[in-house]
Amino acid sequence: MKDWPWYGHVALALVAVIILYMVYFKPKNAVLNNIKEERVKAEETLNRLKGKKRQLDKIEAERATLSITLKELEAIIPDRKEVWDVLRNMHQLALNSSLNIAKFQPQREVNKEFYFEWPIPVEITGNFHNLARFFDRLSNFSRLFNIEGFTIKALSRQTGDDTITAAFTAKTYIFREKPPESKAKKGKKRGR
Asked: How far apart are CA 153 and CA 185, in angstroms?
């Protein structure tokens, strides 16, 4: 080796560097490239998951808002019939308005597509101003009421507190989760 010309030593060093590169650095470089690719894929997955997390947070916030809205609406149109609550609240509204309930006769519900309509014929005695106060309070009641068939008559025997009688039908509503099945669907199920 001592007799070799200078370019022989350079060639030998070059061959040693190539062998070292092929044996040590090339496999390490391949491993490093694989790690880089995995890192890029992990970052893409992380960014995609962060986007989905933002969407999920947005959906959860919307669900919470809708849940609150549903609870508010259930107070207006509950999903079950609360006869005693309606009777007690209507009676309390009448008492607070200085009126007397002469008749309170809840009737059967009327089926509608997504709810039941519950008519309640009512007769009240009192004076006009107290009747107006009663309807004002009823309009602010948490449950939804429609008043139909409203009539007012003067009492034949009037006193200071009782000058009129009013008759009306208060309709309230009960939410129904599932609409009734149509007759065509029922016929298909029976034929099976």
From this structure: 49
**Cα separation, 120 vs 161, whole angstroms:** 25
DSSP state of 167: E
Residue type, 125: T
Which two structure tokens, joined as six digits, stand for 170?
Answer: 């208060």
- Cα separation, 5 vs 54, in Å, equals 70
Tell me whether strands 145-154 and 110-111 are parallel, antiparallel or unpaired.
Answer: unpaired
pLDDT tens, position by position, 107-165: 888 888 878 888 989 999 999 999 999 989 888 877 778 899 999 999 888 887 888 99
Whether the full predicted model's pTM is greater than 0.85, yes or no, is: no
3-state DSSP assignment of residue 117: strand
* DSSP-assigned beta bridge partners for residue 120: 170
